């Protein structure tokens, strides 16, 4: 290969490489927006004794269709020193309803809520805070 053809081939190769590195990366398709969901929850009683079971019941209400069709996760949380701490996990039934049994080993006045983490279908959400007195 003579010098002129070599330079032409080298310039073509470098130009092609420059175009590859300058081209923007193909971006992934944007994720579909997650449906909003509301969490409603309450304790079946306002107070329980140490060791007594209490049911936390509620539902997930999807704004897009007013019902949840899958087993979505729910987490009962307690406010402890300003931080929400997970107490128990469960899932809602296909109709959106859930029920989680809890019991406590010490007396306390608790602030509780139910949290639904973001999933492939729904955005995250939390219920209103409700109280429980453990005697």
Summarize this, please?
With 135 residues, this protein is mainly beta. Helices cover 15% and strands 42% of the residues.
Question: Keywords for this structure?
Answer:
single chain; 135 residues; mainly beta; six-stranded mixed beta sheet; three-stranded antiparallel beta sheet; 9 strands; 15% helix
Detailed description of the structure:
The chain is mainly beta and 135 residues long. It is built from one helix and nine strands; from the N terminus they run αβββββββββ. The strands form two sheets. Strands 2, 4, 5, 7, 8 and 9 form a six-stranded mixed sheet that branches. Strands 1-3-6 form a three-stranded antiparallel sheet, with no helix packed on it. β7 (108-116) and β8 (125-126) form a beta hairpin. The longest helix is centred in the N-terminal third of the chain and has 20 residues, at 3-22. The termini are far apart. The mean pLDDT is 82.
In terms of topology, how is this protein built?
Blueprint: H1 3-22, E1 37-43, E2 47-48, E3 54-62, E4 73-80, E5 83-91, E6 97-102, E7 108-116, E8 125-126, E9 130-134
Parallel strand pairs: 2-9
Antiparallel strand pairs: 1-3, 3-6, 4-5, 4-7, 7-8, 7-9
| Uncertain spans | none
Shape: elongated
Distance between the termini: 93 Å
Secondary structure tally: strands: 9
**Major beta-sheet overview:** 6 strands, mixed
